[in-house]
Amino acid sequence: MKRERLFTEKINVGGVLIGGGSPISVQTMCNTHTADVIATLDQCLKMAEAGADIIRVTVPGPKEVDAVRIIHDKLREEGIRTPLVADIHFSAKTAIAVAPYVEKVRINPGNFHKDHIQAKALFGQFLDVCKENGTAIRIGLNHGSLGDYITNLYGNTPEAMAMAAMEWVGMCREKDFRNVVVSLKASNTIVMVEAYRLLAAKMKESGTIFPMHLGVTEAGNGDAGRIKSCVGISALLSEGIGDTLRVSLTEDPVNEIPVGRYLADRYNGNLRSGLKNINITGRRAVAYYECADKDRLLLDFSCDFGKRLLDRELDEVELHSGFGEEYDAYLVDELMQASRRRFYRPEYVACPGCGRTLYNLQDAFEQVKSRTSHLKGMVIAVMGCIVNGPGELADADWGYIGEGNHLVTIYKKNVPVLRHVPDAEAVDRLLELIEAQQG
Predict the structure, then answer these.
(1) In whole angstroms, what is the distance from residue 276 CA to residue 351 CA?
(2) How does pLDDT run across 118-132, given as a tens digit for each residue?
């Protein structure tokens, strides 16, 4: 399926071209502690071998900057040219320090300082360093992590996400800094798709369209995480929006790459769906597939019908795949849930984890899922750390967020109700709170 592209600026991230008609590239992110150079380097090597075009590592503070420099140098010594991206959340000082040692830095400039004027000044200094070193940037804003300045003006909405991004994009234009990618991720697929559509329209109106990095943040794991990611990402890629992507899964990050590669190959025009026939009556579709395996069916079906469900072109889909009625019905239920049209189980929001995560996130998430599966329609978030966790509980009824040192804070909506809970007890405490409320 060759898409009609939204024509953007073309940027260079260590030899990987993004935008301007370049093929869609696939990214992933280490979940090791970056200060552990050996573990992070080993994971980077596995990611490169698995086909990642770009690799990201977290840089929580200045002490990790030297580790990033060593990792970068060792990758090049091994003959691995895959660009390295530093992920920064709050510290402008850290962003400026690491910029010379990586090909790209991901930042949310609004987090550089609580005072918006100060944040803009620090962002300007950061851009100067990046221009001097030929370092690309990603302006990455997530739903729920926009800050008071923008939410006081526009609320916590897709419009707010797009407007916040446009302010920082405008500063890049003013300083003639063009090596820019922009992302507006959300765990809610409707919010995510609407935010990117608004951003694309606003950049087009401004006369400068920077490439866009797509992703559904905190998508979770397993089939659900893959379906949810495909729904949001494919809806935009099918419209020509998006130039690079990451499928964020609460699993070994190497597992993200095959799903990302499928999406890139499909919308670069290099593969076709196994959909063989479709009958549509009103707003109901009956679809017939021929796929080699269930994994491919899951991806094809999610991309073929996710956008149609999100945009309410269809209300129902019936699937016939040859893998059995029970499996077909399961995929339909999961697709309807990911498209936010019908909820048959709890909705889980779970980050993939990174070097800031200081407890066993994957194990905790599996425990939460297994013990809350009966809570149909409830939204439960399991987050790795306090950097994104509290802000990105925007859609969650309950949240489970790592503090560090094997401690967890439990949230009801976005309000902490239990702090400093040992992670070995935290799932029990979460279930007790939920049951007490329902009781």
Answers:
(1) 35
(2) 999 999 999 999 999
CB count within 10 Å of CB 129 equals: 16
Q: In this predicted model, what pLDDT tens digit does every residue of 62-88 receive, in sequence order?
A: 999 999 999 999 999 999 999 999 999
pTM above 0.70, yes or no: yes
Task: Summarize pLDDT for 197-256 with one digit per residue, the tens.
Answer: 999 999 999 999 999 999 998 888 999 999 999 999 999 999 999 999 999 998 999 999
CA distance 405 to 52: 31
Structure tokens at 28: 């992933």
Most confident residue range from 86-90, 184-188, 314-318: 314-318
pLDDT (tens digit, 9 = 90+) per residue, 244-276? 999 999 899 999 999 999 999 999 999 999 999
- Provide the token pair at 299: 């991806």
List domains and CATH numbers for the chain. 11-267 (3.20.20.20), 275-338 (no CATH), 347-438 (3.30.413.10)
| 218's tokens | 């905190």
The first and second tokens of residue 59, run together, are 């840089």
